[in-house]
Amino acid sequence: MAKDATGLPEVDKDWDVPYQPADFLDLDRASIPLTGKTPAPALVEFVHQLITAEGPIHEEVLLLHAREVLHLKSFTSPRKKLVLAAVEQLVEGGRVAVEGEFFDLPGRPCRYARRPFPGLAKRTVERVAPAERRTALAGLIHDEPGRPYGEVVADAVRFFGWTPGTPGAKSALASDLYRLRDQGRIAGWPDSLVVQASS
Length: 199
Known about the structure:
Low-confidence stretches: none
Mean pLDDT: 90
Helix content: 40-55%
Strand content: 5-15%
Order of helices and strands: EHEHHEEEHHHEE
Strand order of the largest sheet: 2-4-3
Shape: elongated
Number of helices: 6
């Protein structure tokens, strides 16, 4: 089977998309105040748009992308607190869900795994949501069934742009594979993995 630039099989991967920060070219940055004790409605809406576009998104990545989009040289503690207070308002209003350190829209399934976009920084293991890692693993198994556990983990490491020595990569992916197995989403453990048909 032919391989793509990352060394993975070249197949039609409807679960595989490049990761790139959301585009906010038409955003009026001056209309988003980052002052005061509580977040302005415009800031709350901006944060919701960012989470809608990039969720599941890690808290640190959210803060980084908010700073970049708003063209801020630095993100002071009061500004960070305002952005996180906006997230808290969205959570309390039922418009955003929290899982660990990740934010997303409530009830939205993770349908895509995002590989690094050429030229942009790779996300660390901790900044890739477990749901996204599991989507990549299930996609890799679906696209090339019957492979052993170790090969699938190695492919997932490459998919996210990590190396075999990336701290925490193999253990996080192994944990995700165990979870997929325990949920009944994969079978053939551990030597011939296949995706189970959903009922």
